[in-house]
Amino acid sequence: MEKRSIGPGTLLGPLPVVLVGSYGEVERHGTTSVIQNPMTAAWTGIVNSTPPMVSVSIRPERLSHRFIMETGEFTLNIASSSQAADVDFCGVKSGRDLDKAKACHLTPLKLSTLSVTAGYKECPVILACRVHEVKKLGSHDMFIGKIVDVLADDALFAKDQLDLTKADLLTYYHGDYYGQSRRIGFFGYSVAKTNVLKRRLPKEFWPEAR
Amino acid sequence: MEKRSIGPGTLLGPLPVVLVGSYGEVERHGTTSVIQNPMTAAWTGIVNSTPPMVSVSIRPERLSHRFIMETGEFTLNIASSSQAADVDFCGVKSGRDLDKAKACHLTPLKLSTLSVTAGYKECPVILACRVHEVKKLGSHDMFIGKIVDVLADDALFAKDQLDLTKADLLTYYHGDYYGQSRRIGFFGYSVAKTNVLKRRLPKEFWPEAR
Fold first, then answer.
1. Number of residue pairs across A and B with CB atoms under 8 Å?
2. Which of A21, B6, B13, B105 is the most exposed place for a label (fewest CB within 10 A)?
3. Bridge partners of residue A183, in order along the sequence
């Protein structure tokens, strides 16, 4: 476990990968259109529990930055592993050049909690967010958003309990995408009683008693 | 892909799970000691690329909150799946009651870039951070930190290239811990040339041409 210093860098992970949904007007090849624009981001995270808040950092030169500044709202569409190539595509291409939602067969879904910005039907979980504050940090501006609603696929519910393991969520770090692997514990399992462990976790993952 | 609204909530994921390292004085059972204190957090994320910055949100009532306010520095110690039970333990227990580092056999590692706060040797990656700003958001305060150094296990390097897949990093969402799974793509792979795909990715993960 000898360590090597590699200097300052953004090496935190695994990170969630989301399609940031935003809405606005764009001019392409001389024609003006109003679009729903998905942009990939991994510089995102939960920043507060009560009220539920999220941050997503976006470069000012991005089209999505202007769209979110104009509307004051955005969606975070969490992606499944099966969507990895679409997610990658929406990270390397710009809505200034093509309709990314169309190219990736992403279907905009109108949300009752936002005024104009859609989520994407194909993503298993959608967070509807309203901008609380924008902070300039350097290369990126951090949008702090209040989560005003969460939508999840009907198929992810079993007896009204949300089971996210079915969603096979995508993660990202250090330039690579990863699928999601097996559940190995639950919050509090290191100190849980045996009968609770027995009910909730395969024996191979039981922690040693402390 | 019909969606169900479940109202506002913190349902973003998978999230990285880190041991937040902080340093300070604590009184336990009438005795004052100076300790390195690991606290588990998943409300963390990258918020800026240049300069590299991170955020981690901590409740004001937490011991780590006071420690970080006093020293202006913290470490984020990224955990492997094999450390899941320790990580869970450091999330449910408080440094006010016991020495969590000792209980979990975590070895503090002195860092040249911070004045008093240690990293933990057993974690594959350590981010050394100095507080840039603290933002009150409600239940949590968000610490925005400049990443002043990153340290990674020697064993994770192959020909001076960092290979994080070897670290089997831990993730967390919706109350459960998960291990890391197979790499399924790299940034830009949706538009990469065949010879690049051939070199960098097993054929089963090649995206369809667009």
1. 329
2. B105
3. B178
Candidate from A6, A183, A190 with C-beta closest to B152: A6
* Three-state helix/strand/coil letters over chain B: CCEEECCCCCCCCCEECEEEEEEEEEEECCEEEEEEEEEEECCEEEEECCCCEEEEEECCCCHHHHHHHHHCEEEEEECEHHHHHHHHHHHHCCCCCCCHHHHCCCCEECCCCCCCCCEECCCCEEEEEEEEEEEECCCCEEEEEEEEEEEEEHHHEECCEECHHHHCECEEECCEEEEEEEEEEECCHHHCCHHHHHHHCCHHHCCCCC
**Best to test chain A binding among B5, B6, B11, B148 (most A CBs inside 10 Å):** B11
- Give the whole-angstrom CA distance, residue B52 versus residue B50: 5
* B119 neighbourhood in chain A, CB within 8 Å: 3
Cβ distance of B89 and A191 shorter than 8 Å? yes
Q: Does A209 touch chain B (CB under 8 A)?
A: no
Residue of A nearest to B141 (CA): A48
User: Quick one: which H or E segment has residue A203?
Assistant: none
pLDDT by residue for chain B (210 residues), tens digit each?
A: 799 999 999 999 999 999 999 999 999 989 999 999 999 999 999 999 999 999 999 999 999 999 999 999 999 999 998 899 899 999 999 999 999 999 999 999 999 999 999 999 999 999 999 999 999 999 999 999 999 999 999 999 988 889 888 898 999 988 888 887 777 788 888 888 999 999 988 888 888 766
Which residue on chain B is closest to A139 by alpha carbon?
B50
The CA-CA-CA angle for residues B65, B71, B52, to 5°, reads 85
A contact residues 66-125, partner B, Cβ 8 Å cutoff = 76, 78, 81, 84-86, 88-89, 91-93, 103, 109, 112, 119, 121-122, 125
Chain B residues in contact with A103 by the CB 8 A cut-off are: 210
Evaluate if pTM is beyond 0.90: yes
Domains of chain B by range and CATH? Answer: 15-178 (2.30.110.10), 185-210 (no CATH)
How many residues are given for chain A?
Answer: 210
